[in-house]
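Re: beginner question about structure tokens

> Can someone show what the tokenized structure looks like for a real chain? I only ever see the sequence side.

Sure, here's an example I had lying around. Input first:
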Amino acid sequence: MDTPLQGRRALVTGSSQGTGAAVAQLLREHGAAVWTTARSIPSDLPEPERFIAADISTADGTDRLAERILGEGGIDILIHVAGGSSSPNGGFAALDDDHWLAELQLNLLGAVRLDRALVPGMIGRQSGAIVHVASIQRLMPLYQSTLGYAAAKAALTTYSKGLANELAPQGVRVNVVSPGFISTAATGPFVQRIADAGGLTYDAALDQLMDSLGGIPLGRPAEAREVAELIAFLVSDKASAITGTEQIIDGGTIPTV
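And the corresponding structure tokens:
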């Protein structure tokens, strides 16, 4: 799909691997000047001069990132991919306050802080596009393993809807992309965590994960590049009338409409 982004300036968080890396690469292919950020720089990163090391789960990390981006003239496109979970398995009782706070800092408040710092520039230009990457877990939480993550992504989705309604009259669009199971380099360690916690083989844990999602009618998880294609469309002028939506890409996992 042709999504020309020539001359646009973009920031992609969580861009060192997986979906974030795929998004950043696709935006480059479409002509955007892409800034990327993660906690540490990958050894094979394209355009390392536009990488900013930052931990956006902290206020200090977000402030440093925003200061650098604003110093470069701001951005037209903000794509918040950073997220994940490091909490233990075992359901709600295994999560203490520190686990909950860590999930909220990474999966919700990082996006909130970055928007607060960078969106005023978009408002000043009366133009901009934001995509927050959530998860279908906001609708189908895996309560034994990632309940805090699911709750934080639900909060991110609700926040995004309110932000979209506020910013639309000022020319800034906000949308959410909620993937299901994505095949990335991070898939293996996540499945292994489930296996270790349950005393299962890797394949049995993978089957358990698929069963917990209710299966994937398409017959396979999405590829990171496919998620990137959807995001690239949403930040392009071809989606100029789309704001305040949640776009689900899950191979049909969610059984309702």
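Each token stands for a local structural state, so reading them left to right follows the chain. The longest strand covers residues 172-179.
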